Each structure stands twice: as C-alpha cells, then as structure tokens.
UniProtKB/TrEMBL annotation:
Ranges for domain ACT: 288-365
Source superkingdom: Bacteria
Function: Catalyzes the Claisen rearrangement of chorismate to prephenate and the decarboxylation/dehydration of prephenate to phenylpyruvate.
Listed GO biological process terms: chorismate metabolic process; L-phenylalanine biosynthetic process
Protein name in the entry: Bifunctional chorismate mutase/prephenate dehydratase
Length: 369
C-alpha cells in the first residue's frame, strides 16, 4: 500500500522527531555519565577528609531535588522530574557506596514503597519482621539506614515506632510521606462473586471501613501482620480477597478488583528514615524531640510556652506513657526548624531547664517528594 502525501509528510516528520530524540538521548547519556563521574570525585574528596565519612547526605539530596523542582520548565510536572533525578542520584550514590536499608517488611509493604521512594531503586532494601528489628539492624550497623511508619492521616500514630525511640540512640535522618491507595485484590482462581473472607492489616481495614461496610458487609475480615501477607494468602483460597497496595499486587500477581477503596482520598502515611548520623541544615527542616516532664500541674503549658514565644511551628504532639514509672508521660514533639537555627537553639535551651529530660531525635529535611 502506497503512502498518501499526508502520510509521507507525517512519517518524514516522525523520522525527524526520532532523530532529535536520539540526539537528545546522546546528550543526556553524556551528561548523566559526567554527573556520575563527578559523584565519584565527591566520594574521593569525602574519603580524603575523613576515613569514616558518610556518603549519603540527606540535606544535599533535598537541596538538589528542591532546586530541580523550582527550575523545572515543564511539560513534565515537577514531581515527575524530581522522581527522575531521585533515580539518577540514587545511582550516583551507589557508585560512591552501595546503601543498605532495612524496612518493615515483608516485601511488598507500603514501607518498602516508602524506602524506594526515598532512596531510589539503587539502594539495597532488606525486609524485617518488626519495627524493633529495623531499629536493631541500624543500631548494630548491619545496615546504613532504616525505614519505619510513624503516623497515618486517618489512623494516627504508630505507637511501636515512638516507643522504640525511647530506649535507643538512633537518630532521625529524614521523612517521607506516601499517598496510600488500597485496592481489593483477587487471584486468577478467586470466585469473584463468592468472596466471603478478606485479609488485611488492621490499619488498612480501619482505613477502608466504610467501603467494606457498604460493599462487603457480610465478608469475614481477617487481620494479618501485613498487607503483603494478606496478598500472599489470597493465592491459596478461592473465596478470599485481600486489601493491599500496588507493590503487593505486583509481587503476588493479583488483579485489582476495585481500585482505591480507602475512605479518605487524601489518606497518607508518614515514614521516618532512621540512622546514626546528624544531618546539617538543608534550609527547610524539621526537628523531632522526646521530652519527659515532671508530673505537676501545668507541665504541658510550661513545655509549650517557649515554642509559642519563639514562634516555632509545632507540626505534631503525641503523649506516650513513659516506661520508667506508673502514670508518667513523655511527649513526642515535631516542629519546623533545625536544632542549629539560633531561634530553635534558644527555645531548646529553655525547654531543657523546664523538663526532666529532653532528647533531640534529629533534625532533618522536610520530605520533598
Ligand atoms: O554531594 C554529595 O555529597 C554527593 O555525594 C553527590 C550526591 C549527588 O548525586 O548529587 C550523591 C549522594 C549524596 O547523598 C548527595 C548527593
């Protein structure tokens, strides 16, 4: 079949456009390679200054990503562009030092998704069975960093994570916020009209409660240790479904029977990056503290008053029972700013005078992606 004139025009045009793309790809390839070689030089400079240097620099990564987002001319949106640069930096860092990251597993959990979002695909991610194991691995130096969930916008705080900080010297090096989309998943063998049992993590059941009440009021809800575990179980039972995310669906080859069944469309979870390093200022930081107050009237007011006076923006305040005495409480506080900012340092000085104990868990860049 011969091409009509207009087809010939457009195919010539297509050839030309593809040639342009080839040229651009050649340029991008050269530039990424130059960037990677530059990161290798950076590694040598770091090593020549300090043998025990840390290669991963959260504050610098946040600055790189923020700059790219600000410069982005489009048409790709800034988040998409930052994700591409995230992967380039991840590969550059892996040239300097392969980074090992433990996360609350098993494979396919939202925490793994958060770890990949933060560190990129070049990091080596290792699943742990429990939050305290993630802490232990980091403390023991078996991995460089850990990723644990800390709060969900629908379900609130993850107490296990807060409690683990009380007996540990671990620092917070970063945060990452993930939009959480839950799907109803089935296997090829599932009889879709006969679903009588649904597996999921208790938090996910809570986040999809209204949808389940409306669509599966009679199905048995079976809580399991993780969404990935729920996805695995579905493979073995013809009358069961699971609630889990994209990663678990992909990992276990399940089909999305209904997508995005979470009750709140803005459902998101915040994860913390834990490690052994103090992170310098990035220009847009947060700090987390744990504070024990003496058990006396007005203690909470006394604690918060310096924050107010120094105009420091609190982003979270949680109370947990202390482990050292009955009816003693500690406060977990997040606020905007870095502990080296003069205003924050002055405020902390005053809080230290009022509190029985203050521990700075870390100052770290606000989540960028
Ligand atoms: O600037 C550095 O310290 C680098 O090592 C380079 C680089 C990058 O690729 O931009 C890589 C890893 C660090 O975590 C931060 C940035």
């Amino acid at each position: 079949m011969s091409d009509s004139p207009s087809n010939t025009d457009s195919s010539n045009n297509l050839d030309e456009l593809r040639e342009t793309i080839d040229q651009l790809d050649t340029d991008i390839l050269r530039l990424i390679s130059e960037r990677a070689a530059c990161a290798q030089h950076v590694a040598n400079v770091k090593l020549s200054r300090d043998k025990g240097t840390v290669f991963y620099r959260p504050e610098r990564e946040a600055q790189v990503l923020r700059r790219i987002m600000a410069l982005n001319p489009g048409p790709l949106d800034s988040e998409e562009m930052a994700r591409l640069f995230r992967e380039i930096m991840s590969a550059c860092l892996a040239l300097e030092q392969p980074i090992k990251v433990s996360y609350l597993g098993p494979e396919g959990t939202f925490t793994q998704q958060a770890a990949l979002k933060h560190f990129g695909e070049s990091a080596i991610s290792l699943p742990m069975a429990a939050i305290d194991e993630v802490f232990r691995e980091v403390e023991a130096g078996a991995v460089n960093y850990g990723v644990v969930p800390v709060e969900n916008s629908t379900e609130g705080v993850v107490n296990h994570t807060l409690d683990s900080f009380m007996d540990s010297s671990i620092r917070i090096c970063g945060e990452v916020v993930l939009r959480i989309h839950h799907h109803l998943l089935v296997a090829d063998t599932t009889r879709r009209d006969k679903v009588s049992r649904i597996y999921s993590h208790p938090q996910s059941f809570a986040q999809c409660r209204k949808w389940l009440d409306a669509h599966f009021p009679h199905a048995e809800r079976v809580p399991v240790a993780s969404n990935a575990e729920a996805a695995k179980l579905v493979k073995t039972e013809w009358h069961s479904a699971a609630i889990a995310g994209d990663m678990a669906a992909k990992l276990y080859g399940l089909t999305l029977l209904t997508e995005k069944i979470e009750d709140r469309p803005d459902n998101s979870t915040r994860f913390l990056i834990i490690g052994n390093q103090d992170v310098p200022r990035s220009g847009d930081d947060k700090t987390s503290l744990v504070v024990a107050m003496r058990n006396q009237p007005g203690a909470l007011h006394d604690l918060l008053e310096p924050f107010h006076r120094h105009q420091i923006d609190l982003t979270r305040l949680e109370t947990r029972p202390s482990r050292s005495g009955v009816w003693n409480y500690v406060f977990f506080i997040d606020f905007k700013g870095h502990h080296e900012d003069p205003q924050v340092a002055a405020m902390l000085e005053e809080v230290r005078l009022r509190a029985a104990e203050v521990k700075v868990l870390g100052s770290y860049p606000q989540g960028v992606l």
